Amino acid sequence: MGESRKSEFLAAKSAIHVPEMSWAQPWEDTVKSMEVEVSKGLHGEELRKRRQLFGQNMLREVKPKSSFSILINQFRNLIVFFLFAAASVAFMFGDHVEGFAIGIVIFINATIGFVTELKGARSIEALRRLGSVSSRVRRNGIVSEIPAKDLVPGDIVILEGGDVVTADLRIVTSSKLQADESVLTGESLPVEKSPEVLPEKISLAERTNLLFKGTALTRGSGEAVVIATGMQTELGKISSLVEQTLEEETPLEKRLHQLAHWLIWVSLGIAVVVVISGIVAGRDMVLMIETGLALAVASIPEGLPIVATIALARGVWRMAKRNALIKELAAVETLGATSVICTDKTGTLTENRLTVIEFILDLGKILIDTQSGDAKNMFVTESGTSLMPHENSPLQDAIEVSVLCNNASLSHAREEDTAVGDPLEIAFLTMAEKAGFSQTETVGNYPEEKEVAFDSESKMMATYHRTDSGFRVAVKGAPESVLESCTSLLTAGGDQQLTEDIRKKWMAHNESMAARGLRVLALAEKDTPDIHAEPYKNLKLIGLVGLMDPPRKDVHEAIQRCHDAGIRVIMATGDQVVTARAIGKAVGLVQEYDAPVVHGLDFKPAAELSADEKNYITSVNLFARVNPSQKLDLITLHREKHAIVAMTGDGVNDAPALKNADIGIAMGKRGTQVAREAADMILKDDAFSSIVHAVEQGRIIFKNIRAFVIYLLSCNLSEIMTVTVATFLGLPLPLLPLQILFLNIVTDVFPALALAAGESNPGIMKQPPRDKHTPILTREHWFHVTGYGAMITCAVLGALLISLYVLGLPERESVTISFLTLAFAQLWHVFNMRERSSGMFNNTITRNPFIWGALALCTVLLCLTLYVPILSSVLKVANPGFQGMALMFGMSLLPLVAGQLFVSLFPSR
Was domain 326-350+552-686 assigned CATH 3.90.226.10? Predict the structure, then answer.
């Protein structure tokens, strides 16, 4: 918002006194301060004034990436910049063929990266579902339906169950009003809403007299006044927080840039030293400048950007098959380095739907498996005995009462997603239908004649159903209220008096279930001949029922795989402490029900935490009632301890943390558009287990990147050492600049690509994550690069010397032998990239079909350089004859033999 626009907004806000804490004052005061009458609403002139001052009720949209910006991103690479410089120098010296060859390298890399990222960006945009939402408002005393974008502060909104809330509202009147706020607060259960005044110091999730933009009404009706629109809503504030969050380079991008910096300075240094040394020694200056250019080109692995891009792109394609959509190529590798996964609960670890999981009846605890698919195995006692409802009176009565005392509907389908009503009541109906108790049939047997609605004082609901002898009253409600109204207990042997001791036992059951994070209700009934009889007197207790938002089936195994891989999984939810602890125990995040949980009210801003407090925060795995800024602080604290943090989520409240994390992972099915825009990766199947597959894929990719970087750099180092040593010895250049480019583009790239396509060893997910500061190549790896480069250099120079001074071949034929010796030595060198624990003949390299395909292709291409006149002329090679070819082949095998011994003596990776 610009300064002038901001000042206009503040002036307007001041003019109509938009309340800062409307939840802490009576709704009458809020309406008065908004200068509106509830019975009439805003009038035309006031509407025009407010629309002009406040603007449309819309969030700022994220502008999609343009094709041009994606294309430009492909050239933001130091190696590419250096290649541009090398091509320019080549053109300056009139070597147009070499300049065009370098240009082709740049073009290939840019094309691959552009096509891959463009496809990912367009796939993300395809997920956008921009719909037109409307609201019912009272204006000029008339109720009408208007586009939600036209709402202004002070509008009186008419509410009905099923509506999407389109602005922040202060409730004026309500009847059984309930809202699903999971996308904003993380609270999995619907929240009861009423106009009652609340204390000033309460969290967002506890402001039960407000409704927030982006949430939905699950039932009830009411009226409310608009107190905030657009970017001034709670949703808008989170959107602003996302915009203020800076995106950082991924670890792989940082490592590749560091490597590029190092290579460029080293190459320039070597080139300058060689050129100056040659000029001082009296050699031709132009020749030495060309030699310096050849060395600079030799030192930079032109194939590195190409191979890295393709390796990451292949990871993207693999993940797409696993229902994971990657927005940025480097995000795949980042997952492989992840050491902490910060996850939301609702819809990510859990199914985001209430489910009945147990009954407590007189005969004991009955566990309920609604996914069993077989009613015979649906109800099981703690001892393992299956129960059939129609053969057990208390169980049958419990199911019937849960259906009768119910306002939800499954009449159109037997699936929860198509049901209408309170999620708790939908859960009852779903359980009953799967147990064989049709809602239509049950209500048909006991037709409803009267309902006593749930209210906050009694905390109970009752329905009256006609029977042959009178009426059956079905009751459900809070256990303490229902127990207080009961005088008897239903048992398998008949009714039993409910004594005080028995009542205390049932309250203990209630407390035990609540401590496990269950939503607990009590069921009761009675028979009466009078429909006007008091509903909550002399009730018969049937039992308690426990509901919860159950963990997703594959989550426990996925979290265990994370633990095996040394990855911490942390749950940060807007739900209650007891719920967070129960889900944490159920999915394996913690082992005890009394595991520590950090409450949002106890989570101070990161800047205010002491060192000990920071250590405690980063040691806890469960966080409850946290807000978006606290999720950001949590990521910051773990980053301070050098962790690479992945954040998963689906709600609007997750968006800032998704953007700030090293990698943000949004849910594709249940995820909000705000979350998808902020994330680096979207899970189309919402499965947490897909994250584990992505982590494994990322580890494989980094292993492969390290392997082909070692391969490329050792090959390029051999070219540098060969040219440098030959220059100082006064020998003919064993490699010409175009020959170097041919090797770097063709014979280096194809084996490197084959390495990038390699599979992993089975134990890769048993290893700890890489340290955040570990470079692509450690000192040990550089030792290997140097050793391999020296082996190949010795073989090439040996072949050159033998061809010149033993076989007496001309310079062009001798240079051809050194060129081919280097080429084939580099091809065989790929077998030196086997893992240290593998066998010499049976390993991931020899089992990789792409390796053999690359070797065959490169062999053909090298043969073409000898027998295709145009290539022979451009590369300046000549057929060295049988002796020369035999020498070349024998010398090219020496680095392979030495390398296998080297791998055995000095294992790494």
Answer: no
